[in-house]
Protein 1
Amino acid sequence: MKRAIPALLLLGLSTAAPSVENNPAVHATGSIDSLVRASCRAAGIQPAGPCPDEVFIRRVHLDAIGTLPEAEEAQAFLEDKNPEKRSLLVDRLLERKEFADYWALKWCDLLRVKSEFPINLWPNAVQTYHRWVRDSLAENKPYDRFVREILTASGSNFRAPPVNFFRAVRDREPATIAQAVALTFMGARTERWSPERLAGMAAFFQDIKYKKSNEWKEEIVYVDLLGGTARDAVLPDGTRVALKPGTDARTVFADWLTRPDNPWLAGNIVNRIWYWLVGVGIVQEADDFRPDNPPANPELLALLERELITHRYDLKHMYRLILNSATYQRSAIPTTERPEAERYFAHYPLRRLDAEVLIDAINQITGTTESYVSLIPEPWTYIPKETRSIELADASITSSFLELFGRPARDSGLESERNNSPNAAQRLHLLNSSHIQRKLADSDKLRALARSQNPVDELYLTILSRYPTDEERNIVSGHKPGNRSLTAELAWALINTAEFQYRH
Amino acid sequence: MMKNHNDCRDGCFGYPMTRRNFPGRALAGAAGLWLADSLAIRSWAATPAAKTTGQAKSVIQIWMWGGPAHLDTFDPKPEAGNDYCGPYKKPIETNVKGIRICEQLPELAKQADKCAIIRSMTHGSNAHEIATYMVQSGRPAGERLVYPCVGAVVSFFKGYQAGYRGQLPPYVVLTEPQGRASEGGFLGARYKPFATGGDPAKTPFEVEGIVAPGITDAQQRQRREWLDQLNTLRRAAADTPAMQALARSEDEAYDMILGGGAKMFDLSTEKDELRERYGKNTFGQSCLVARRLVEQGVPYITINYPGWDTHKNHFQTMRTKLPELDKGMATLLQDLADRGLLESTVVWWSGEFGRTPKIQWEAPYNGGRGHWGNAFSALLAGGGFKGGRVVGSSDARGETVKERPTSPSDLIASIYNRLGIDSDARLPQPDGTTVPIMTATTTGGLLKEIL
């Protein structure tokens, strides 16, 4: 029982969690925490304590790379004595391949990347667009450049991937494109704007044209410079711009949007990243910026904007800042029953895993795979069975599991389209479906764990990224599984715990 | 910082653990959560209640996934010649004088007095997804909003909110979901159907999640206790909204596993003779399950019946598919009628479109039919629709609509009419506003001929 962790020792571990709050080396991170603490204090809310290492390693893997840590990774991290091990882990995760895979999945939700109705990008354009997004994230392309490349893209939907932004809309009216630009890059919902304000912005996208080529489903997106007329366009801040014929009006808009003093671009992206990692936006919902929906902590939002701009729109810098903060690293157990505590970031909110992350985690634990097919012909999309669900490019890939667990249809580009709320059908599926039962029963990996020296420890590390507590050991050793194998029953129970299904 | 530091007597990896009871489950039955949902919806401003005076209580939708050939089912054109009707040159008389259907459907011919055949369906789209969306939602493609399909709308108006208290969800799909086409649209995930999975032609019918072979009820209960004991985080955070929602959904799930849910899908209690008449195949037995669900009051059941997208070797496929369709659907109509359920149950047969009237004899099709949205057929029976009727017609070759163009929206509005869902009822959107369920059409309008 050398690894048996008595509860009090665990508690000791958790209080000894490295205190980033007092580390002057990470000044901006410290500022985040001071601002959050100050607003909690003003509201009379006691923030939760730091989460222990067992929780951190799991949480940061799921949040940063959408991937469960392997048992060996969890074990090594727990045994690591380096006081800087959390920030070192963050650095490693941000360079993992899965970082780009997972965030490409998120971005493709927002960019509405799907083959079929109502977006109709068609498979080969989906693949090239997804790859461009993923590569941009992998190389940590500065965010202002990422946005500019999209907004000013011209060319073939197969060869100039970001032009697909202008195709991934329900219709190609300038106002619809303006609406997508405002939602995606400004977090603004033009439904709430006056029609004149939307029309003023739409004028920047009025010259976009589309033409077919001889290649099946190829489409060229271009700007008709000669056909363009002299006209006025109005920026969302109310500034009137006289557009001359012969200019690509989109570049005028992109110049304005990516200016360092633009109030929308930086604010929207840092708020999204905060929402993605911390679980609640500073502006909530994260894509609903408007005067009557003010940020919960304006100083915090301003700090993050400044950080992004002074670090030249380096997104990984923002991930690093937030993931290293004490605010991010708080326990998920509230210290108060006041529901508004989440808006003060006083604890880490419990969130069910994303559909894709959940099935990938189950596959990782059991060493099994999913088989995805595309019903969309020409070209048939072949998806190798090793492909992880977070790597799927196309929301039109049929999967009843992903549907059931709330994968967004990618129709609207709204953050809220992804639905991570639990329901009975989801519980039926994990508790009792042949899909999951078969994975558990057929798993060579679980069978090997069952034969190992410490099967209970191995299962806990594999599924929950921690060792069992003494009480759990007692429960397990007292369990009579009847004609079923104890390890199979334990694996079933652990993947059905809240601890497995939720980010915590 | 570590508040509750000393409370963690039991060991919970650093989480303070409070000794609370497991979330109460006595009161939160399946209906509990759904009720809570419907209350939430009521609070979405101004959703006018639909009138519920129609006599139909349930819909069985036979979804001919892929698009069935109208010429080879309910709109035969023997005079159009071999290039149009292929081997099916001798349509048969039905039990209604003057109505002829494909010779491969002799059992359905005996049920024609119960059926209204609409031969003038049209929407003009030859793309599966767009056509499916239009036929299943009654909306044009390309709108900003993605509308819910008929099943979701019916479960909104006839489900828990309207007093449905069944143990099964109000919208069930046999057996595989279709992704987009069976979606709740802007109504959201809670109006998506429950897809059974499994195969009702096998014994037992392993309804995904409800029927787990080899695990007895007693074992299910033991497993649940075992899970509760190990559910450390759920206990530690029992008071959070997230864990309360999880507990509720789990209570509901176990109500279905351990309550009557499994029995409703158990076909072993049906007479073998009847099971044979339905046809011992997935479609036939799905029809039988659908009847059982109607008896339980489930408002909307979709039978997803794939295999009709016959670009190649069309007639070889029809030789096996049509008799299967014939037996299953005809027995369903007769069985519903025998049990006095047909008057309160709409049976709706349709695919997303028909198939090209002119046969593609050349390779690689070798006698195939492509997609055809200009003119196709649908069938309605029961629920107060008049049987023994034909509505509208297509031209001599089945290529265009000749009389009374009928859009999917016209047909769906007619189904709503039979269900007592008012055509000016409104649906709530997530932002609190509402939209009408139907829009005006330029086609023939409500199917007054058969109402």
Protein 2
Amino acid sequence: MSAFSASTAPGNPARAREDHFVPARSPWSGLVRKGQSIRIVDLEGQQAVDTLFYRADDFGERYSSQDTVRQQGAPYVTTGTALISSEGNVMLTVTADSCGRHDTSAGACSCESNTVRFGHATKYLQACRENFILECGRHGMTKRDIVPNINFFMNVPIEPSGDLAIVDGVSKPGDYVELRAEMDVLCVISNCPQINNPCNGFNPTPIRVLIWDPET
Amino acid sequence: MTTDPSARAAVEANRRRYEELKREGQRYAPRALLGPSPRAPAPLPPKAILHREVVPGGWYWSVQLRRGEALRLALPNGPASVALVAWASADTSERLNYADTVKVQWSATVGKGRVLFSDMGRVMLSIIEDSCGAHDAIAGGSTPGSARALSGNAPRRNTRDNFLLAAGKHGLSRRDVPPCISFFAPVVADPDGRLSWAAERRRKDDYVDLRAEMDLLIALSNCPHPLDPDALSEPPAIEAVRFRAPQPAADDLCRTATAEAVRGFQNTDALFVSQGWSP
């Protein structure tokens, strides 16, 4: 496990262009223009935020978890990580992170994978894939467009043995991650509804999303 | 944290179940997994072989597999990496999902006895033989950019473009190309989470046998893995053999090694009830 390295950001919420409260278990989407910054705040702590990015004028170009991992030679997302698209372009850069480490290898939960992970009794529960299908659908996209995502505030250490598991989140109430858009992007979020593993402390909670214009 | 006692009890019950599933998945299941297959495989019975393809270095190949057929990927000409993506033939929006594959099985490594999952909680492929045990599921394949960076800006064949070509020939587009899994790609994470390349874990004559558990369209790419320090050399041709796999026995390793595989096969087998096919 690598050391966590936290950093702080200067953004003042009072000067944000947009300020969204995203209830527990809910999806959200919005445009982030090149140069703007987006901050995701884990209001109560230990809340996984499943997040996807699409190029605003060409949804066929989207976030690529594998290219992001390969480019930085390490599997976790934190300050300095460049989020790489399927076309090899930098979509956003992580500019601040009070938490220290985020997952991009474990993907989003679904009713179907929940049956495999936790038994068939867990099939009929809200899941991130449901949120993504509905929210991407609002923008004309389908399940074909849903790719493995970033899980902000989700702690998934990969051990040298290859063992990989979601463990207790390390984010505290108010922890945040901030990213600067390097191109116009559509951000699609599922505020994870999972109650069968520790990604949300078994208890999903709300988040806040803020967007700032570039400082002049 | 909620103060409602019944809600707290539900949280605690879910936590206990998760810890138990994790303990079983990480500690007990790997004991059921066998070591690697011998490097010299038993020859396939000639009558079982349906097709033999030699894929040159830098190139791609696609093939349809029926449930119960298998694909042998082999390195008779020296070390190479073979990237793979898969779609369900009946509905190509169902496709290989590497994230579910590693998360569901509690392991970033895949190898003999493990299975590859689709996004629908079903088993697409079982790794029924594997002499190598060093495959990569998290760092992806080469791209135009990664290949160019290694070759001093000269354009080179790469896995991303190969998959776009393979998908395109089946009426699919870049929206349909999922992240891949690379066989014979010894990527290891060190204790700090940095990824490195363990070249000695992949050798000439390594092979894997992948059994299709659903009707599949598969695309392969024979390009150097982007983390391979020797990625500049042209890789040798690899061999891909489509064959009829033996009918799985009741104690089939891949179908029984883990509780997750058992549940995944319940989801998969449900598709085939009307065809009367069951192990």
